[in-house]
User: Fold tRNA (cytidine/uridine-2'-O-)-methyltransferase TrmJ from Xanthobacter agilis.
Amino acid sequence: MMPGSGTDSTKPWIAGGPAVILVEPQLGANIGSAARAMGNFGLSRLRIVNPREGWPNENARVFSAGADRVLEQAELFPDLRAALVDIKYAIAATARERGMAKPVFGADAAAQAAGRHLAAGADVALVFGRERTGLYTEEVSLCDAILTLPVNPAFASLNLATCVAVVGYEWFKAASAGALPFAAADKSPLADKQDLFAFFDHLEGALEDAGFFRSPEKRPSTTRNIRNIFHRLGLTRQDLATLHGAITSLVEGREGRDARKAQHNAAAAARRAKKAGGGTSDAPGDTPGE
Assistant:
């Protein structure tokens, strides 16, 4: 896809990170949406435990919105124990307090803990439960830590893919040190005072010609107010060039602009004609045969 859609196939695909385990997901659409979120945030290792609609699933492919490789590499397991067999550190996502003596992380702290264990050579998994009931207490007990999010306590149940996206965002932010994909474009240098004063002269002259200053007594204060407006903006050289052009266009109007353009074109045509005739001469002795 082209970059305009937010997807650029010319750039390398970032992969790795902790495994994401979806326990008995009910809908293929949610699996696909979770895979899409994983692709967004550089998570590529999807494990699916006993999906209700079976596997592979066409709805998952459709809702992955192009994150097909995450689905193609997904591993299928009969239960959570099997999915965790080679995992050294597992973090279980739950909205409910389980009364277990385990570390409780928010998404940011969970991402940092996952990064530390991975850096030490221990494989890590983020475990997410069913859409309707979440993880069972027995399943949470198989994990080393708990992940929960600060949400509305009266409406704490998140969509499965949304939860994966929130945690994936924190993972990628931590892994990339918060680097953004692009920065603000370089601004033109700030205008110096000489340029700014020349702009004030241009503007105030145009306003004078247009009859803006109707009261001689108020003109000094009005002029100061106008100048202060532009002082507050921190104008660049490019800003001043644009404003100069705008004032000139307003003063000239369409007829003036057309006349200036015609004059410019005529001068350019004259220069071209002079250049084209520069190789000939009427001077004596230049005529062939003399």
